[in-house]
Amino acid sequence: MSRTAAGSPALLLAEIEHAAVRSWPALETAEVEGWCWRYASGGSLRGNSVAALAFTGSNPDAAIAAIERLYLAKGAPCRFTVSEASVPADLDALLASRGYERGEDHLTMAKDIADSTVQSPADVMVMREATPEWLDIYLAGLSPDRRAVAPRILAGLPRQHAFFGSSRADRLVSSGLSVVDGPLASVQCMATLGAARRLGGARAVLQAIEAHARDAGCDRLYLQAEAANTAAFSLYQGFGFRVAGRYHMRSKR
Questions:
Q1: Residue 102 lies in a domain
Q2: Which residue, 249, 245, 187, 250, is CA-closest to 218?
Q3: Beta-carbon neighbour count of residue 85 at 10 Å?
Q4: Rounded distance between C-alpha atoms, residue 174 and residue 171, angstroms
Q5: What is residue 94's DSSP assignment?
Q6: Parallel, antiparallel, or unpaired for β 184-192 and 220-226?
Q7: Could you read off the pLDDT of 184-236 as tens digits, one per residue?
Q8: pLDDT per residue over 121-158, tens digit each?
Q9: Number of structural domains, the chain?
Q10: φ/ψ bin of 117: left (φ > 0), alpha (ψ from -120 to 50), beta (otherwise)
Q11: Cβ(64)–Cβ(27) below 8 Å
């Protein structure tokens, strides 16, 4: 039996959401009534939003006001990540009533790790640290503010992480990152050079991440992606990922 909550979609989603928070650490955090306030000086949406996965208070409105003051002190918009795992269950409605705008839908996807037959492709490098070539691929598709902060977030990753790079004609063309968190392993920072699309580099990275996670004792992969990114969704679905949940941002300046 899987060590993750295979029989309970809600518990599995909550496990994934907690792991996702740990796998992309904000530069600054604070606990507010059980919620995790996160700040990363711009760029990353999740790194600059509240992870509302537990609530220990009795007055959500007061806690939201306290969160707003923290972001105001940073000169940043106040943002919450809202998913089916958010607490309290009516958080989305509470934020909407306070004038928070709803962002685009994102998907949380999961995949059971295959048996011992899965192998890492020979053309994929597994690295402890990101090389300049890896960073060039990953950062190329990001907005300027995200490019500025991403290396600082990568420098603070949990200890059990690995970078993956797929090569074509001796040139790195696709990037990926995975963070092992107990029975779960993330799929992050997936990117491919424009000139190397549809050459199988991204799929090779996924295969290498799965083999790495299996060898680390994990039993499930997870990832989070924009719902509108149909090309990525097709890739992940074809690799065996299935939708485990959805989330969106609620933001207010």
A1: yes
A2: 187
A3: 23
A4: 9
A5: H
A6: parallel
A7: 999 999 999 988 788 899 999 999 999 999 999 999 999 999 999 999 999 99
A8: 999 999 999 999 999 999 998 999 899 999 999 999 99
A9: 2
A10: alpha
A11: no
